[in-house]
Amino acid sequence: AVVSTQSTGQHYYITNNLSEMAGTFRTGLKLTGLSIFTVLCLQLHISINKPWYRYKLMRPQMMIALQTVISYGSYYLFRSYKVSSSWKKLVVLLIVLTHFSFFAQFMFVSDNPSFITMIPFIAFSCHVFMCLGTLCGDIGTFLFIPFTIKISVAYQNFKLNFVPICAIILTVWSYINTILPPQHSTVHVPINGLDAKFDKLHIMHLSDIHVGPTTGKLFVDWLVSEVNSHNPDMVVITGDLVDSSVKNLRNAVWNLKNLKSKYGTFYVTGNHEYYTNDVDNWLNYLRDHLGLVTLHNQHHVVTEGNATLCIAGIDDPQAKKMSYPDHSPDPITAARGCPSDTPIVMLAHQPKAAQLSIKSLPRVDLVLSGHTHGGQFFPVHIPVYLVNPFFAGLYEVTPDTHVYVSRGLRFYGAPTRLFAYPEFTSVYLHSNQK
User: Whole-model pTM?
Assistant: First the structure.
């Protein structure tokens, strides 16, 4: 009789858990379908070559798409913790703040981050960690199914308390990593044919600053002072500088005009500049008001006596996807006119654009990229690693061609850095005459 009761209880427990998961899965399928429909609508409108039309509809449609995707995680958490009185209020608060965060991203942008933007995005970090932890816990549930109902129930209770505590710890840890000063990395790259006058040329590589709702003027001012203290010969910014319009952020980035180097500051667009729907105004503002050399499928020849070095830069591939007029990555156009037998340093935000540059040109000595954030936080490292030809750090593609991918200075969305610490990089070129 005892065995029979235990078997019946275990059967009910297993059936109940499977039913809960099946219900969550069905809802997830519905939300996924809605997400796909929303993304298709987004693609439809960005394919129309009318900038004013894109600007009016891009933000609300992006918001709808993001909210739809996040809704699956919110629903999953609510179903998982609705029976836990101790954590239910926290989960509901996280869900509300998380969904508000993307409204804050579009509506509350100023010179420096405010309480009204940072708190929701920190909640978003905790939301993500709780979703991942709960998913791992549910997978673990199946491991205990062969055991007694007593062990299974004990595991469920442990999971419902352990996951939120871990999520809070990871949220605090990963947030602290974003407010500590970024690492200063150093790499040395041999360049065949580099004139001795450019030997040990010091390039300060900056990427993924993401000035916007969570990064502002205070960070830019610190960065300018830090870069200048290293006395670089050249500064390059490889995209994702901003996350809002010139109107909202002109004061926040103003101090970039005070970057000091022998040959100037060079800039190319990233995918997020196109999300602002203000990319042309940004190119004009950075060039005309801040003195940056904007490389819009263009190059600039640096000279030292009779020695030359070609700095080329291409648009981000997102421009083509969004049908921006006169914007698309074109390495051939960018490098056309570089003096023959002159080393080429290519600036390309995405690693895929770096790969395109290498395949398109007979000679590219060094490509500087960003975009990946080094995964930003675990376990996002895994898909980011899989979808990009280069992930983070220095790659020797051939003995004559190298690619360096920066982990970036800041973050996008959730203020989270976990096992992917932010960096700015001193790149030293060394003459390797053949």
Answer: 0.87
